[in-house]
Amino acid sequence: MMETPGEELSLRDIVDTLKRQRVWVVSLPLVFGVLALIYGFFIAEPRYASTATVNVAPVQVQAQLEGRIQVQGQSLLSFQALRAIAYSEEVTREVWEALRREGKLPTAWQDQGGTPGLERMVKDFKIKDETSRQQVVPQGQVPPVVASLTVQAPTPEVAARAANLWAEAVVRRVRDVPAASLRASFQALEEQVAPAERAYREAQARWEAFQRTSTLAQDVAELEALTGERPTLMTGEKATLANQIVVSVEPRLGERVLLTRELAGLERDLAAVRSRIRFLEQEVRRSGKEFPELRRDLIGAKAEEAELLARKAALEARIAQVEARINLLKDRVAKAQVEQDRINQALELAKNAYLALSQKRTDLQIELASSEGSLAQVIAPAYPVYEKVAPKRALILALAVFLGLMLGVMAAFVAEALRPPRPEAAAG
């Protein structure tokens, strides 16, 4: 049924209704205000807050290029990743356990019933990104991540202690992010260094044993004495002076050359004696028995020829022995040079491999130490702040009075609607 304009409530009717029902309008805000004061002063537990600030710097990576050390910054994690670490169960559980061991765990954060105290404690932890958007950093560098960690607790001391424990746990976890991979790489490298060092020591021992037992130097010296030639040694370019065989650089004649020259002289003498014998034989045949001294000269010449032939045979036998010895020495020297080159090459390879792994291990140690020492740090620890952050009594009182006033107005209109009609209105 549509109301007529005469049945609409005017502002005067509303004011008159509130005046008549002023008991509800005044009493309910008063009751709610009193209850709010009782809650704020006697029931609500006071809360204090403390804040610690954490700075996460970018990882400084050192790269040696063309003999120069270049330092570059690499972003380790963002604020969202830092937030995930801060609220992880490992970090918050570490704070909770530390407070429990120290006897500073508030009752509100203790396990009660079916609700773990850790969950209630985390509700009082707040993290905020404090990284300046206008921060100026050098070109090629990454700005650090700055975050504030705030904890609310029943006492200022507990709030400060919990904030510091939280910040320290976050810093340790952040440092473990690159350190974990570096430690794994370092451990794998350590497993490679030991076999490489053992291989290097074994190669060094083989080289020393070869130097002690090898007759290469003596064979080369004897070969030079026999041939008068210095053999070319097949040593590596990086062979040490101890590996190289030092021989005389003065020109000298070998025994083979001397024997060959002596044999050539004997052959010339033998040719001359034979020529003389032929001449004497012709003279003896022509003169007959008239010159007996010619026969004696012929006999002497033939004796000299026999002596020269004997010397020639002995000399040829000696030359054959020298040639056999030279061939034997050449074979031994060639085999010794091949063995020496093999041992030197194995030693060089083992040494280079060991030195490369050792240098890489040193670099990893330096990088691990630098990442653990300067990656993340607490730049502003938390201190007890004795100014309460809760309860906010003025706000609670204002809200309670406002709520009571709203309910009072509603109750006033309900009471007015339920009030029996006046007699004059009924008669009309």
From TrEMBL:
Membrane topology: Multi-pass membrane protein
Annotated Tyrosine-protein kinase G-rich domain residues: 344-415
Coiled coil: 256-353
Subcellular location: Cell membrane
Keywords from the named record: Cell membrane, Coiled coil, Membrane, Transmembrane, Transmembrane helix
Main location: membrane
Keyword Ubl conjugation among record annotations: no
Domain Polysaccharide chain length determinant N-terminal: 7-98
Pfam families in the cross-refs: GNVR, Wzz
Regions that span the bilayer: 23-42, 394-415
UniProt name for this protein: Lipopolysaccharide biosynthesis protein
